[in-house]
Task: inverse folding
């Protein structure tokens, strides 16, 4: 899960991840604090690809530590 800097970044990332096979991105949070929940394969490469993509679209995004359940990043 990532906290994002704005709703436009959230919209752009949901659209971008819709183009990626094996990645599910859900817009979460609120208008005041948009967030993005991303599910992907639990591999080092897949997780870093997600982090990289988020950083490209929103350099102010912050990753929320995973509670250890499932394959979320």
Result:
């Amino acid at each position: 899960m990532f906290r994002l800097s704005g709703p436009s970044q959230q919209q752009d990332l949901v659209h971008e991840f819709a183009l990626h096979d094996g990645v599910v991105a859900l817009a979460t949070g609120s208008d005041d604090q948009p967030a993005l929940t991303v599910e992907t394969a639990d591999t080092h490469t897949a997780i870093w690809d997600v982090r990289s993509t988020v950083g490209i679209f929103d350099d102010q995004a912050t990753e929320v530590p995973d509670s250890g359940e499932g394959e979320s990043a």
Summary: The chain is about 35% helix and 20% strand. The mean pLDDT is 91. The CA atoms of residues 42 and 69 lie 11 Å apart. Strands lie at 2-3, 24-29, 34-39, 62-63.
